[in-house]
Amino acid sequence: MDKLILIKYGELTTKKGNRNAFIKLLVNNIKSMLKDYEFIIKYDRSRMYIETKDIDEVVNKLKMVFGIHSIVVVYKVNTNTDEICNKVLDIVSNMSFQTFKVDTKRALKSFEIHSMDFNRIVATKLLKNINCKVDVHNPDLLIKIEIRMEGTFIYVNEQLGLGGYPVGIQGKGLLMLSGGIDSPVAGYLALKRGVDLECLYFESPPHTSIQAKNKVMDLTKKINNYSGNIVLNIVPFTKLQEAIYKNVDDSYVITIMRRMMYRIAAKICEKYNYKVIINGESIGQVASQTLTSMYTINSVTNIPIIRPVCCMDKLEIIDIAKKIDTYETSILPYEDCCTIFLPKHPVINPNIEKCLEYEKRFDYESLIDECISNVERISNLNKNNNSLL
Fold first, then answer.
1. pLDDT digits over 95-150, tens only?
2. Which fold is adopted by the domain 172-388?
3. Between the CA of residue 57 and those of 34, 37, 324, what are the distances in Å?
């Protein structure tokens, strides 16, 4: 096959001794993403090649895989000057451009013509046959030629991948998915750093609606496009939330509620050996996300907590949400546990000792155990028939 897909690793090439582990996981993730296609993968420490008859569809799928720096459709020819020149002319002859540049990389040092000289040979061929000019600074068309041991590869359009690390290389984390704008973006960014995910959602019927639950399921499906194996854990939170509102001063209910959510998340992490809790908190965005609030809420667990969007402003977060197609779903007007019964004046500098006093007023530990024992686990979210674990 003379036309195939070339994948460049980017950040993975900085891993030196661990590079093979990263690349092998990337290969496995690609195979999982392309399970509906016929393809052949060949790879080494610097490049990966995919042969398939469904090039356009496969390229679109590869754009959803973390760990890929760039994707190019390349033409492979024998390392022969005339054959290379003729193939370049064939590739660009139907393209619209006025200026071009040829960029040759001669990885095969036994090839007798140096890169700069070969650039001139190819450029001369084009200038004789096409009405165009050379522009080495700002060309309309950049033609890249790689002369390698296994053959010569020619390409003109390099598409950026998602970058980051292959999903799963860092282990697994639990994403607290609220249904708002921020937490799906936080999940996407965690996936980009190689953290595989499960999601955790707190529902409180009849105070929260089935539409709110379906909204979170839809968001999980969208995040799952970048992973493929996310499980959604739905926690029945009604009894515990009602106990909080019954026993806690209005200004402290959000703080106590968040502390309970973290306790539940921590227990689920311990149960399934997840390494971190991930959420969409952004510093100062709401009362529970001041530094004092984060410190007070955080104190109930020793499990590391990752906040990928904590230093972003709202517009930056919205931009990513639109890019990953979660924004329109996130803004659907269905309230979650964090927005129902929202107090008029929530405390912004909560005191840990005061939290402990309020928590002594009710048996929250048994209520937490009841929540965990009744968690609904949903998998296969991108298929028509979701399954319960």
1. 999 999 999 999 999 999 999 999 999 999 999 999 999 999 999 999 999 999 88
2. Rossmann fold (3.40.50)
3. 10, 9, 18
d(CA 382, CA 200): 17
Establish whether the linkage from the previous residue to 139 is cis, with ω within 30° of 0: no
3-160 and 172-388: same fold? no
Q: Are 105 and 147 in contact (CB under 8 A)?
A: yes
CA-CA distances (angstroms) from residue 329 to 44, 184, 277, 322? 40, 10, 23, 10
Q: Would you call 230 helix, strand, or coil by DSSP?
A: coil
**Fold annotation for 3-160:** VC0802-like (3.30.2130)
Q: Is 175 helix (H, G, I), strand (E, B) or coil?
A: strand
Tokens 């999601």 belong to 199
Contact 43, 4 (CB under 8 A): no
In the chain, DSSP assigns E strands to: 3-8, 40-43, 47-51, 70-77, 99-106, 133-134, 141-148, 151-155, 158-160, 172-176, 196-203, 232-236, 276-278, 305-306, 376-379, 387-388
Pairing of strands 172-176, 196-203: parallel
Q: pTM of the prediction?
A: 0.90
Q: Is 236 helix (H, G, I), strand (E, B) or coil?
A: strand
Output the six-digit token pair for 56: 């356009």
Residue 245: closest CA among 255, 235, 234, 232: 255
H helices of 34-160, in order, are 55-62, 81-92, 115-129
Beta-carbon contacts of 381 under 8 Å, excluding residues fewer than 6 positions away, are 217, 220, 221, 224, 230, 232
Residue spans of the domains in the chain: they are 3-160, 172-388
Check: CB of residue 201 under 8 Å from CB of residue 224.
Answer: no
pLDDT digits (tens, 9 = 90+) for 138-195: 999 999 999 998 899 999 988 999 999 999 999 999 999 988 999 999 999 999 999 9
How far apart are the C-alpha atoms of 284 and 292, rounded to whole Å? Answer: 10
Contact 255, 347 (CB under 8 A): yes
Q: What is the reported pLDDT for 12?
A: 77
